[in-house]
Amino acid sequence: TSPPLPPPQRLRFSLGPETAPEVERAKRHLDSLAADVEVHCFSHEGFGAGGGLRAEAIVQVALQVAFYRAHGSLCASCEPTSLRHVLPGCTDLLRPPGPPCLALARALDDPQAEAELQLALLGEAVEAQSRHRQEVRGRGCGGGGAGGRGGRGAGRPRRGLRRAPIAAGAPLPDIFMAPAYALATHFRRCTVQV
C-alpha cells in the first residue's frame, strides 16, 4: 500500500475588490456544475488481487474500445499517475496497450467472432494494461510483490531525452521533429485514476 500522506494544509487567500466578484462568480459556476453530477457506486468482489481481472485496467481498455467504435481508430491517450514510491512528487504517463486493444475492438465489432475469442482478447488487453501499470507504478498498484518497484515507464526518459538538447542549446534530434512523434504525443484522451 501507499505510505500515508500528511493532511493537507489549509491556505488562506486575500482577495482584492477587483478579484473577489470574479472568484465568487467562478464558485457559483463550479457549484452549478457539481450539482449536475450524478454518481452511482457499487461493489463487485470479482475484481482485484485474487479475484481476476483488475477493474481499473478493464476501464482503460473499455475506453479505448469505445473510442475505436466512435471514431474507427484508437487514439493517443494517457493516464497521469504518481510515482511517489520511486520519487516523491514525480509522475509519469500510463498508456494503454495499442495492439491488444485494437485486436479486441475489431473482434467485438466482428459479428463472426466467437465469444470465447472476444473473452480471450479482453483478457490479453487487460493483462497487458496491468503489466504496463506495474512497470510504471510499481508496488501498491496490485500484483507488485517484492520486485514491483516501478518507475520503468517510457514517458520520463523520453521527456528527458527531448529536453537535454534544448537545455544544451543543441538542435532536437530528428525523431522529435517527426510527424509520427507529434501524433503519438498529442493525447486525444486523458483519464486520471479511473
Task: From the structure above, extract its key features.
194 residues, mainly alpha, Chloramphenicol Acetyltransferase, 3-stranded mixed β-sheet, 6 helices, 3 strands, 45% helix
Topology of helices and strands:
Blueprint: H1 20-35, H2 55-71, E1 77-82, E2 91-94, H3 98-109, H4 115-137, H5 155-168, H6 179-184, E3 189-190
Parallel strand pairs: 1-3
Antiparallel strand pairs: 1-2
Helix pairs in contact: 2-3, 2-4, 3-4
CATH topology of the domain at 50-138: Chloramphenicol Acetyltransferase
Q: Which sheet architecture does the biggest sheet show?
A: 3 strands, mixed
Q: Helix and strand string, N-terminal first?
A: HHEEHHHHE
What percentage of residues falls in helices of 4 or more residues?
40-55%
Mean pLDDT: 84
Q: Which residues form runs of ≥5 with pLDDT under 50?
A: 142-147
Query: Total number of β-strand segments?
Result: 3
Counting H and I runs of at least 4 residues, what is the number of helices? 6
Broad CATH class of the domain at 50-138: Alpha Beta
How does the helix and strand content classify structurally? Answer: mainly alpha
Distance between the termini: 18 Å
| C-alpha Rg (nearest Å) | 21 Å
How do the strands of the widest beta sheet line up side by side?
A: 2-1-3
According to CATH, the homologous superfamily of the domain at 50-138 is Chloramphenicol acetyltransferase-like domain
Named at the architecture level, the CATH assignment of the domain at 50-138 is 2-Layer Sandwich
| Shape field | globular
Q: Give the amount of beta strand, in percent.
A: 5-15%
